# Entry
Amino acid sequence: MKVGVVLPLGEDEQLGRPPSYAEVREMARQAEAAGFDSVWLYDHLLYRFPDRPATGVWEGWTFLAALAEATERCELGTIVMCTAFRNPAVLAKMAATLDEVSGGRLILGLGAGWHQPEFDAFGVPFDHRAARFEEALQIIVPLLREGKVDFTGEYYAAPDCEIRPRGPRQSIPILVAAKGPRMLQLAARYAESWNAAWFGRPSGLVAERRADLEAACRAVGRDPATLEVTVGVSVAYPDLGDTPDGIDNHERFLTGPAEEVAAGLRAYEETGVSHVICACFPNNGEAIARLGEALDAYRQAP
# Structure
């Protein structure tokens, strides 16, 4: 099973600022040196929640392109790119180009978005998100698999569109984050892998989500075994800094010494998960080092 880690992009209360690119780059290199299989970035533009000050976040694709040059081995993933923020045909072109820069290490995670305030602030339509997402997939998937598409829909168009040059791979792997029935069917129809998030230790909820995914696969005539399962896991180290409330809730957070976290990773592997994507709290170099110890313990187990 592969294990990846999410890198920070947003404003940090402890730092009193967002991390600099130099700091994120150092964390990516640290994760690669520690043996993580992948590093991941979120895709947001602005956070606004009731009764809280607005907080900012760096634009994820720009940082990811820079990390493609700063790293050598680990895969680079988006968890997940909001297709509403960028024209889908242009996003496919961006993906093919970044795959070239990285030497074929991109995992293109896609989703429909969920945080309406950032849509509103940047003038992005929030209505019919699933329908818009489906049209985006109808453009992005054939462009990245076959190099061309001819599509005109209600929300997007890519008439007689072609990706030239193609980049190092004939097909960039697409991950879709999905939960509801319609989104799950889109994952089953178009993606190489599916992501469910966020969890702590493996629980009945994970199994329930997988059952829904398998039903979606059957509905579109796909063998569920051909769709990789990935899971987002929240890992908390409260002694290293501020962490969210509820870290004692093992369904929400994986925490404890290295062997305990390693046991959680092994449990996910035993359920058939192919890639665990860990989000650390706090998200800093010390937490990545601690998670790296758990990764070593996981890999050393018989």
